[in-house]
Structures are given as structure tokens and as C-alpha cells.
Amino acid sequence: MPRTAGWDDDPAALLGGDVPFRPLSTADILDGAVAAIRRAPRLTLGFSVAVCTVVQVLGTVVGYVIVGDEAHDERTPEVLLRSVGAQFVLGVAGLVLTALGILVLAGLLAPVLGRAMFGRPAPRRVLRDVGPRLPALLGTSLVVLVVSLAGLLVPAAPLIAALAVEAEPPLIVVSALLGLPLGLVAMIWLYVMLVQSVPAAVLERRGVGAALGRGRTLSRGGWWRTAATLVVTLTLTVFMGLLALRLPFLVAQLVLTSGDPSDGQLFAGLVIDTVGRIVGWSVVLPFDAGVIVLLYMDRRMRREGLDLDLRTRPAASGDDDDDFFERWRPAAPGAPGRLP
Question: 314: pLDDT confidence band, cut at 50, 70 and 90?
């Protein structure tokens, strides 16, 4: 079988080290996401720490203010209960910002993992690779997030309206039982359908609209597999980010604030809790982002035969950057190596 110019005739030459250049199993995807962190630790962890620090510190400060001056002198369950609604809204806002950070980080990691697949790891070139595509990356990430949240909020609109006008409890309960499950299903369906748009915006050099179209195309026939992989990733994320990595900080906070703590001890406990959240989320964000990129690559190989296509596609012209990104653009219909 003819091969792209400059490549070895050995099929093993198409293996990119930690990331196999073939359709990926779930284990391959999870291992490759860890490999992405190891290949570019300063990039992945640096960006992740920056995002998590901003989100968690703002959440802590605003949450502390929301409790109010009353909580400074009266630390009772009633005071905390009165702030539950505001704290819930604040927590959701933090999760939304964290999800946006994951999507943007997926775009940053896309060329890192892409070059690794070709056996040309170059994490230091990520800014050069992503810089021209940054507006499209940010726009695509925002659209994916907004559309997914709209899928949740539209079916839940009757519930929100009932709560706003303080409707009768039976009406609120019925609205919640109907609206929330439908909203969750719609949000998950839209997110899984569009999430692969983010790597496409960077690797295929597409605008926001074209990237979203590619995401929809790639999700056809693979929605359930993509969803199952994301569920496994979410399970690992929750375990690592909320339990395993935060456990030492939670124990230290409990020890410090046990008994009748002073104001200084309470403040120190709050700082420890914030640092624990930053550490936990900073480690898992790059993992989630790497999974998204590898799901995109897996769908390209399963749906379009990208691995077979590149064995027969002629070498692209131009310098190394042009050559690299040209390889990720879908071959024209009927081109050699393209699957029917």
C-alpha cells in the first residue's frame, strides 16, 4: 500500500508513542489523557491552576460575603440555611466557568495530542498552533456551553416561573418533575453532540459555525459511545477532584475548626478549603480536556477512516505547520484512502 511521502513503510511508524494512531478503546482514551498532562505539564497544569484559582477564590469570597455580617457574630444553622439558595447559584456559576475552562483547555491540548499521534510531540509550539484560532476556539466553546445550558433551562422555564411567582406547592412539584428530567436529558444530548466541535475548530482551522457542524457530523453513529466515555470520565473526575485529592484538606479543615474556633481559625479553615478545591480541580481539568480531544480523534478514525486516509494521502505542501494542519482537514469525497 502506498504511503505518504517521508513516512516509514513500517505500520508502527504511524503509532504516536503514548497515543496510538488507530481507533481508540476507552482505556486508550483515558491513558492518552494522562499522557497529555505528562507531555505538557507546564501548559496543562499552568492553565488549569489559573482557571481554578480565579473560579474558586471568587466563589469563596462571594460566598463569604453572601452569608452576611450576621454570620460573623452568629454562626448557627439558620444563618447558613438562609444562604442556601445564593450558595447554590454561586456553585452552579462556578461549575459553568469550570466547564468553559475544560472546553478551552481541550482546544489548547488538541495540537499537542495531534502532534504526538504523528510522533512529533511539540508542546512548546502550542501557542503558535492555537494563537490564530483563539477567537474561534473561545467562540465555539461559549456556543457549546450556552446551547447545552439552554437545553436545561428551556424545559425548566415553567418551574422557574412558578418559583418566581410563589405558586402553589403542587404546581411547583409538577413543574419540577416534568421540567428537570427533560432539561437534563436535553442538556446532556446537546453537549455530547457538540463537544467535538472544540478540537475541530483548532485542528481543522474552522470557524465557529463550521466547527459546530463538524461536531454534529462526527457525533452521528457514535453518540452513545461518546456519552459512555464522558460518564466514565466524570466518575473519575468526581472521585479524584471532590474526594481523593481534597481529603487531606478536608481533614485539616475539620481539625482546625473543631470545637469553638476563633475568627482566625475559621478564616484559616476557609483558606484551606479553597486551596483544596484549587488543587483537586486543577488536576482533573486537563484530564477531562484530553478525553474530549481523543474522543474527537477516535471519531475521525472510526467514521472517516483518518488513519487509513493518511496512509495514502499525498504529502501536503508548505512548511511544517501547514503540513500538520492540512493532514487534519477531511479529504475531498472520492480522494484516495477515504472511506465510502
Answer: low
